[in-house]
Design goal:
The chain is an alpha/beta fold and 380 residues long. It has twelve helices and ten strands. Helices cover 30% and strands 12% of the residues. Helix 6 links the parallel strand 5 and strand 6.
Amino acid sequence: MTNKTAEGFQTIRAKTKDLFDFNVKLTEQQYENSSVNSNEIERGVIYLQSYPKRLVFELTNACNLRCRMCGRNDADFVKTTFDTKWIDKFESVLNTVEEVTLMGWGEPTMHPEFIKILERLNQYSVRKYFCTNGQKLSEQKLFNAVFDCKVDIMAVSLDGATAETNNSIRGKGFDNVIGGLTNIVQERIKRGTTFPYINFVFTAMRNNVREIPDIVRLAGEIGIEEVKVVFLTAFNLEMETEILYGQIHEVKQIFNEAIHVAAELNIRLKLPHIQGKDPSGLCNHKPCYTAWRDLFIGSDGFIRPCMSTPIKFFHIDECENFDEIWNHPSYQYFRKVINNAESEPDSCKHCYQSSFANWNRDHAFIQTGLAFSPEWKKIN
């Protein structure tokens, strides 16, 4: 393939202020709210008149895989499950926010009422997005729900273009993922629908980085629109040998090859900044807008800035309604300090959140010995 083939091809970068530009048209109410939200982000407003653009529900912190690189292996877990009654407190904004994302420290499809949650969200204009390891996609009930509930976006984790590579990292599951996605894409074609938009999420490490161009080819073979690559963050000494910090030349070559393949196959490709090229320079992280753009609730009911932090603001049961939650004093204080290198929380000073991390800094790649996850306590 010549260089000319890739001319004009733009690599997607992680969104920080806005959400993914998807082909679902916003309602006037959603558009107005998002516009006000963007304006308040720009002005650094602490008490918001707008609602978030996105709600993130961590449905469970349990998982049906044990991936080598996952921070779950190095955190003190008590299994917690999202109580569906909490959705009542968000009902007033489900026609105003753009999106509800179902993701967190566990596998959301394991929630016993996962399909009922999709059915409930489908009553509103909100975009529906879930992230999964793909192990349950072939189950008929979930397969049907993806279409019956009009799931807009589905992110599927896959860490190798072959079963051998993927399963050496994730333990198992390559065939389940490929089989499930193939059926969904074929059904999408049969129905003549544009949903769900599907992307692969690929955690790049020394063991698999050379397969990034091949995972793009695999996406093309199946009929998947996008490949998103994130760098491995190590949470223990063993995985530090797999990080790509310092591998600038090799990573650049592989990314360039992947860009050419993506251009040829018309696959959207989302890549992190190569070390040394992140526009954050020497800052701890990119300007962080999570406390304006998103509201994250953990499966234990605690409101947190995002999933990549041990910080807990407060338990949702402390608040009567959404307005109390969204402008709670804890939220206002976090908005005040988060982008100040001196006053921001310690865990934010070594941010590894994939969208906001500064990939020039080693702490984005190494969290060994740091507090990187919340302490889960069983809520009665």
